[in-house]
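Limitations

Structures in this collection are predictions, not experimental determinations, and the ligand pose is part of the prediction. Treat each record accordingly. The example that follows, with zinc ion as the small molecule, is included so readers can see exactly what is and is not provided: the inputs are given verbatim, and the output is the predicted complex.
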Amino acid sequence: MKIRIEKEKDKKRKGQKKMKAIVFKEPGCAVLTEKEIPEPQPGFVRVRVKAAAICATDLEVMDGNIPANYPIIPGHEWSGIVDAAGSEEDRSWIGKRVVGSNDVVCLKCEACRSGNWRYCSEFEEIGFKRDGAYAEYIVAPAYGLCELPEQVSFVHGALCEPLGVALGTLEKAGAACGDTLVIIGACSIGLCILAAAKAMGMREIVVAASTKKRLGIAEEMGAVRTIATEEQDLVEEMKRLRPNGSHVVIDATGMERCIQQSLKLAEKGGTVALAGYGRGKTMGIRIDDIHINNLRVIGAGNNWNQHQKAVDMMAEGLVDIEHFATHKIRLEDYEKGLELARKRPEGFLKAVFVNE
Ligand SMILES: [Zn+2]
Ligand SMILES: [Zn+2]
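Predicted complex:
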């Protein structure tokens, strides 16, 4: 899809408080514009955004492949400082460094009360249904905030969201210390899974990706082996390396060929976790790969409120995410950021908007 990038004129009127924001007006159209600074409703706070990472999912919103409420400010990987609260009892958050959940829910229904916010019938996600963090301010629910300790930078704080996806995926997969693991996809989720898996003591972690571009980073982060699938057949190579298969296999690509392969890499009775967005596609898999081998195939599509755990692990230095934020940019440079995220040149992993 050809992407239209417009620049909107500064419509600031005297005395009116405005903020810079990047808006996806409709699929295929991104603008840098000025918007009114949002006021937090009761139960919500306003956060001055310090860092907001560009996620591949945001490009799917830009391309119209994910349902979103256009016009929308995208961005669900963020950190900042609380500067206003919608209710008296939340004023204690003001001035605190935070990250937060993107889940806007009722907190009253059965799903919410059992902790399964994503199953709430009123569920709305920031960055998709509600305005996100590609801006100077964001409004987020106070109930989902986590304080960011001083030793974790704002840029790393923004990465609590994808790291939380990794933690949620490993938890859903029932991954355990000492288990062997194959990760397909060296995207930021794939590499966050690697960082989290190393921290929890999984072993012999193999990372596969189509090209070598990011496999060097995976090796630096402690992958025992990397496989570029345009050069080597993943299934054949793994059969040679690990004839009985791996305890856990995680697909972070959402691509048909990779999902088909992931089912052939797990040991009998092993687990395959699907952690990649399938872009709404119907795919063909060989059912007997699951049936005959008694595989557990599980879906792991979000972070399930793992922000606090992600923050705590970062604060303790347990996860290696030093390599992640390869490009720090300003909101004004959004064209460059979006293009980098789309083209993923050699050495690129993540672009992060940083506000002064
Ligand atoms: Zn994301
Ligand atoms: Zn609910």
